Amino acid sequence: MTAIPRSSGWTGRSVPRVEDAALLTGRGQYVDDLPIAVGTLHAAILRSPHAHANLRRIDSTKALALPGVVCVLTGEDVRRLSRSMTVGVKADVEAWPIAMDRVRYVGEPVAVIVAADRYLAEDGADLVEVEYETLAAVVDPQAATEMDAPTLHPTLGGNVINERRFQYGEPAAAFENATRRVGVTISYPRNSGTPIETYGVVASYAPGEDAYDVTANFQGPFSIHAVIARALGVPGNRMRLRTPPDSGGSFGIKQGVFPYVILMALAARVANRPVKWIEDRLEHLSASVSATNRVTTLEAAVEADGRVTALRWDQLEDCGAHLRAPEPATLYRMHGNMTGAYAIRHVAIRNRIVLTNKTPTGLNRGFGGPQMYFALERLMQRIAIELELDPLDVISRNLVPAGAFPYRTATGALLDSGDYQAAMARAIEEGGLADLLETRRAAREQGRLYGIGYTAAVEPSVSNMGYITAVLSPAARRKAGPKSGAQATATIAIDPLGAVSVKVASVPQGQGHRTVLAQVVADVLGLDPGAIRVLADVDTARDAWSIASGNYSSRFAPAVAGAAKLAADRIAAKLKRVAAGQLNVTADEVELSDGRAYARSNTQNAVSFARVAAAAHWAPGTLPDDVDQTIRETVFWTPEQLIAPDDEDLVNSSLCHGFIFDFCGVEVDRLTGAVRIDRYVTMHDCGRILHPGMVAGQVTGGFAHAVGAALLEEYAYGPDGSFLSGTLADYLIPTVMEVPEPIILHYESPSPFTPLGAKGVGEGNCMSTPVCLANAVADACGFDDVTLPLVPARLADRLASEEKPSRDAPKTVREPAKPGERKLTGEGSALVAAPRQAVWDMLLDPRTLEAVIPGAHGVRKVSPTRFLADVTLGVGPVKGRYRAEIELTDLNEPEAVTLSGGTDGALGFGRGSGRITLVETATNQTTLHYAYEAVIGGKVASVGGRLLDGAARVVIGQFFKSLASHAGGGRGSATGILSRLRGWFGRGA
Question: Where do Basic and acidic residues bias regions lie (predicted)?
């Protein structure tokens, strides 16, 4: 890492973090740690197992009869007590926090069960009976745009909820005159942040005041406070939102807790008691929020030397089942930066937002940047390859010139400062690119697959809250009124003993707010950082805040810390005037340093900081006439550079812009397709560095996040909308074993637009690293295109020659699964130590079935060949109660029978049928042969293949072992694909 010169003050030094003492000793105060009022109830959420279905009936009778269950909240209650949430664009759709007449994604809330404790609430959820009428689902965004695609919202008349076209300069002429045209088409997958701590809400309602009080680990932006208050039908001053002192990570996605804030607030109103809800991991993976997936077609008009004269973007953004605020932020956040780090003057853009039967999306670290830069930087590599140029030459020839800053991009961004060429040159030299090129040459001589990838990117920070209005036409914006700015808030208070406190409206998730703010204020007031206490939780009824408040878009260092400096400057100026009177000097002679106020010309003429600072408390009459008080200063800072989009759709979507230049070397295993990162170099210009250690932590964290996005992580859905990555066994996140230590370099060009000269840094590698690694893999393997994540199986399939299927392979034609289902098939055999007739009799005996079916509470025979069963099963984190119906048909006693079953429960559904044949052996034992088909859906299916198969083998093993035991002893065994056999008996898998 490049050494950062030691600062003369506290700011710019890697002082120990104030936060760590509590966090490392288990004394953090997270939402689930906070004390709750006596009598607080607990909630569980019943979620849809189907991606798309009409709700025919919800019956809560049995749940309400369970002792301890207080109430069950359904869509009918929510509609009666609240209003539809604000939709991200003007369209004829409603967005509710719970399903009304239709479910539109797996995991959508259907009912909220409130009980004395969480265990009883979960039991109550098992007893709520829901009847669904499944509908065809659509998960592919391109398919969703077709005229014959299933429509999620009939009132919308289709699935494209918004479309806009933009033109800057003369792109058509540039393309017509271009020497070459080079294009790429990219499908960027869904992924998420997966913080250690999931969502949490504690809500109460005061009926006398018609007011709500909610504590939630909400990240912000606090523009969502207005959405919550409007949905609850109360003015903002009757919707108190508080955050806990600590948050176990967010990476943006905890802004998505707000629908659950609404639900739990309403649950507290109905129950007339406080209600607490903590999300479990499976809920979080399947139904919180993820980043958007995007299909991008990008074409460049290119000159012979690789210079790009024009870009033509076509972006199709998949926002899931509902367009929830603040979306479509992910699509429009980068709008001013669509040319990246390059000086390209002609741009055409087509943006479409489409709805699919997937979880609604939200903000995720770097939101918009990963999707945009993956297309742009893959395009730059393709230009180099197709024109047979060095990728570094293509990048450098297109960079914004060093002397052009502040530089206005074609689409409206105002790039504040930088020298991209100098930063790039430093990275190449200090990062050892020459050695890496030699490593590649030597590796290829040995026949190894080794590649180098490059990326140049601009990292925007401090979002202009008005950029989202670019989704509207200029006429619609004029009608709605201007929206712009990025207001940050900070308050500095001094108590009667002269102690200093700092309060900001920014919710940290581990970034070290308390440490950095203490450094900044300490420098201004001449104190030790340890003398300053920083409060970083938020209470909308107590604190100074605005709708632009929050911790998002890398705004802490440039905006929030900057506002704290301005507040400190104001109070310092007042303190100097007070001290001047006590020291008998002019105010401009006073210095604040080392806990004192002293005269610059005579350092012995001094008074303690505490005495000066406390004067407004103890002796306000002694204050100079031009000093009203020194007790509290609050600053609301809004940068003048952030204005509303103009009539030409020019959008300065962020205040300041860092620069990133990355390069890496990777090796791909020819046999397995595994990717090994050999070296990763990342150069950052993030303006003035306030705390080098924490900047390194932010860069490393963003890099680790991006390695996961590039190599491991994907929210996978079946064609029917079933969620396939519902546990951490299937949604793989990187560990220290997969994340090498990056080489971090810095080039500082302070921003002229921020009080401290700082820019954002925490999101940059999420934007640059996925495409840098993809470019390296493409270089190693000679691929024209690559798709994330770069999992070994996907790469191995492409590296290996295609195997031709055997001519003798059986051709089995099976019916496709119906909407909302996932189909499973298999066959196998088992040996039971009993005569064939005895085994046959067992299959018709309810007492035997109850004894041998794992988790059965009772099996009732309702006809000679039909049974009803009550079964409880657990598969990893999923445990639930199922009502099963089993029927025997096509009986050929005692040789063969078809066994069919169907289930429904709070955790999913299942149906299956199998043909069993019984063959008696010479030793008076019986071999069972079977072949089956089954379909499953819902929460139990979301645990994914690895965990489901493993647990199912255990269940089936228990079944045959018990069957053998009831047959008189002996061994029971099962071979073949037994993992889905339990679908016969109605256990949902």
Answer: 799-825
Give the tens place of pLDDT for each residue, 35-79. Answer: 999 999 999 999 999 999 999 999 999 999 999 999 999 999 999
Q: Same domain for 777 and 749?
A: yes
| Rounded-to-integer distance, Cα 654 and Cα 641, Å | 9
Q: How far is CA 427 from CA 6, 572, 662, 680, 746, in A?
A: 21, 40, 8, 11, 8
Q: Between 839 and 586, where is the model more confident? A: 586
The mean of the pLDDT values for the chain is 89
Integer Cα distance of 729 and 944 in angstroms: 8
- Give dist(CA 987, CA 912) in Å, integer: 10
Same domain, 550 and 626: yes
> Is residue 729 located within the same domain as residue 670?
yes
Sheet-wide strand order for 160-168: 160-168, 346-354, 308-318, 293-302, 180-188
Decide if 184 contacts 375 (C-beta within 8 A). yes
The CATH number for 433's domain is 3.30.365.10
- Residue 85 and residue 231 in one domain: yes
pLDDT tens per residue, range 694-746: 999 999 999 999 999 999 999 999 999 999 998 999 999 999 999 999 999 99
Query: Final residue of a domain: which of 753, 768, 799?
Result: 799
Q: Where in the sequence is the domain holding 76, given as residue range(s)? A: 31-135+193-287
- Helices and strands per DSSP (H, E), number in the chain: 25, 36
Same-domain pairing of 565 and 654: no
Ordered alpha helix ranges (H), 431-484 = 433-445, 474-480
Strands 632-637 vs 488-494: parallel, antiparallel or unpaired: antiparallel
Residue 3 lies in a domain: no
As to burial, measured by CB atoms within 10 angstroms (0-12 exposed, 13-18 middle, 19+ buried), residue 949 is middle
Task: Examine residue 972 and state whether it is found in any structural domain, yes or no.
Answer: no
At 941 the pLDDT is 57
Residues 303 and 204 in one domain: no
Percent of residues in the chain assigned helix, strand, coil, to nearest 5:
30, 30, 40
Identify whether 481 is part of a domain: no
Q: Which of 767, 742, 560 is nearest to 657 (CA)?
A: 767
The rounded distance, in Å, linking the Cα atoms of 645 and 466 is 7
Amino acid identity for residue 590 in this structure: V
- Looking at the fold, whether 605 and 656 belong to one and the same domain comes out as no
User: In 10 A of CB 147, how many CB atoms?
Assistant: 6
H or E stretch at 963: helix 944-966
DSSP H or E segment with residue 397 = helix 391-398
CATH number for the domain harbouring residue 963: 3.30.530.20
Domain boundary among 237, 261, 287: 287
Q: Please, what is the Cα angle at 979 between 978 and 984, to 5 degrees? A: 80
DSSP 8-state secondary structure symbol assigned to residue 281: H
| pTM summary value | 0.87
Spatial contact of 956 and 979, defined as CB atoms under 8 Å apart: yes
Residue 440 neighbours by CB distance under 10 Å: 21
Residues 899 and 884 sit within 8 Å (Cβ to Cβ): no
As a whole number of angstroms, the distance between CA 608 and CA 601 comes to 17
DSSP letter at 737?
A: T
733 with 620, same domain: the answer is no
How many structural domains comprise the chain? 4
What DSSP line would sit under 182-240, residue for residue? Answer: EEEEEEEPP-----SS--EEEEEEETTTTEEEEEE-----THHHHHHHHHHTS-GGGEE
487-533 residue pLDDT tens: 999 999 999 999 999 999 998 888 899 999 999 999 999 999 999 99
% of the chain beyond a pLDDT of 90: 76
Is residue 816 domain-resident? no
> Beta partners for 72?
113
